[in-house]
Amino acid sequence: MKKRFVVACCLLCISLLSAPVSFAAAGAIRIGGLFAVTGPAAFLGEPERNSAKMVVDEINAAGGIKGRKLELVTYDTAGDATKAVQLATKLIRDDKVVAIIGPSTTGESMAVIPVAEKEQIPLISCSAGIKITDPLKKWIFKTAQNDTLAVGRIFEQLQKQKLTKVSILTVSDGFGSSGREQLKAQAATFGIAIVSDDTYSPKDTDMTSQLTKIRGIKPDVIICWGTNPGPAVIAKNAKQLGLKIPLYMSHGVSSKKFIDLAGDAAEGIRLPSGKVLVADVLPASDPQKKSLLAFVKDYQNHFKTEGDHFGGHAWDAVMLLKGAFENGANTPAAVRDQLEKTKQFHGIGGTFNYSSHDHAGLGKEAFVLVEVKNKDWVIVK
Fold first, then answer.
1. Which of 20, 259, 268, 311 is the most buried (most CB within 10 A)?
2. The whole model's pTM is what?
C-alpha cells in the first residue's frame, strides 16, 4: 500500500508539472512585460511600461476581469537583446506568466521570438519591424504599425508631389535594417529612385559626412530611418549644413521627445505616425478618436506629460489580452487563439483585425502623415 501511495503521488506531481500554464483556479492573472526603461531606447520603453501599469491598475480598480485581478510583472531590458532573452525565459519559467508584452525594439523582439515559440507563450511585441510577424509565427503578435505601411505612407506623399529622387540614411540596427529593406523594396512601385543609400551607427553623434555626400548628389528628398537620438542629430546636422532638401523621418520618432531633442531643427520635418499625436483634431467620425483622447488624458493625469505613440503600443497589448481573458481564455494556447480572433478593436495604434494569416492586424489607415510646425505636430493635408 505504501509503495502504491508513493507511486501515485509521483504520478500526480509529474502530471501537474507537465500540465499547461493555467489561471483557471489561480488568484491573479499574471502577465509579463519586457520594456527598455533605461538605455538608448528608454524613450520607447518608459512610456510603454508606464502605460501597461496604468491600464492594469485601472482594470483592477474596476474589479478586474470576471472578479480576477491582473498581475503585471515587468523587467527592464535596457534595450539589450541578450538581456531580453534571459528575462523572457525568467518570465516564463520562474514567474509563470501566461503572456508577454514587449520587447520595445525590433532587435530585442527578433531575439526573444524563438523563446516564446519554443515555450508556447503568446508574445505581443511593441516593435515595428515587419519580420516580427512576417512570415507568420504561431505565438507572435504585434501592436506597433509595420514599417512597410510607414514606407508606403511616405512614398504616397512623394508620388503626389512628383518627387522621385530619394536619398536614404538608416540606422544600422534591427529597426533601421528593416526600414531600409522596405524603402528599397517599395521604391519602384511608386516610381521612386533611391539615388544614395547610407547608414549610421546607433552610437554615432555626428552624421555630417553622410549629409555632405547627400548634398552633392542633390536628391529631391532625404528619408532618415531610426529611433532617437540619431534622427535628432541628423536634423541638427542638416540645419547646420544649411540643407534645403525636404527631410522625412520614420515613425520611430513620432513623439514630442523628438521635437525636444531636435529643437528648432525639427521644424518642417515630416513623418508617418499613429493618430495619437493629433487626436484632438481628428474628425468625430474617426473610430479611434474616443480611445485616443481617453488615453492621452489618462496618461497626462498620471505622468504629467502627454501619452504618445509608443505608450499606446503597450496600452493596446494589455487591452487585447483583456479581451482574450474576458472571452474565457485560461491557458496560453487559449489566449493565443482568442488574440487571433480579434476583430475591429479600436486601439491607440489603429483598428486591429488579427487572423490566422495576419498577426500584425493593421492597415494603412493606421497612419497619418504629420509635420512639425511651431514645435508641435500637425496633419499634412
1. 311
2. 0.88
